[in-house]
Design goal:
8 strands; 2 domains; 2 helices; 34% helix; 173 residues
Length: 173
């Protein structure tokens, strides 16, 4: 903010639209206090925004955990889900994921039809749900892995509305 004072003692608080708005010196203390309050509010707002981001960062994995079921980190099933999510991210980066381009912001959750711990039985299937920013649709990608060493294969892709009703099949057409 620009502060200026003319010879008559009028203090100018910045410039707006090339016009000066005079502020009398007796009100200068009040203006400075208001500016201090505004600065405190902005600082508080920044802190609240940072806390919200941190909370979202912490709760997102918890939400995925509750949404997809209990899979312990480091187990074969957790590794399978992680690999499926990586595969979908790679397809998206290569513009080979039906319904999404590499430039669109999205988030995904991988899930399996089975719950709990234990070993993975092959052929294994994983469903990856993707939400695109600015779109109410949910994109479902069914992936299959025939053996532990085999690559992932996209078996089916569909686009559903917010009520999970199919809008259009994306793959195969």
């Amino acid at each position: 903010m620009i502060w200026a004072c003319n010879r008559a003692g009028t203090v100018y608080d910045g410039f707006r639209d090339d016009k000066q708005f005079p502020v009398r010196p007796r009100n200068l203390d009040l203006i400075l206090r208001l500016r201090s309050i505004n600065t405190q509010k902005q600082t508080t707002m920044r802190i609240q925004q940072r806390m919200a981001k941190l909370l979202a960062w912490l709760l997102c994995p918890l939400g995925a955990f509750l949404f997809t079921g209990c899979v312990a980190i480091g187990t074969p099933k957790a590794k399978l889900l992680e690999d499926a999510g990586t595969y979908v991210s790679e397809l998206k980066a290569q513009n080979k994921l039906p319904g999404l381009t590499s430039t669109e912001h999205s988030r995904l959750i991988a899930s399996t039809p089975w719950k709990g711990g234990g070993e993975v039985s092959y052929p294994a299937s994983v469903t990856v749900r993707v939400w695109k920013q600015g779109d109410d649709s949910t994109y479902y990608y069914a992936l299959v892995k025939d053996t532990r060493e085999a690559p992932w294969r996209l078996a089916e892709a569909t686009r559903c509305d917010k009520n999970d009703k199919v809008i259009e099949p994306l793959f195969p057409k």
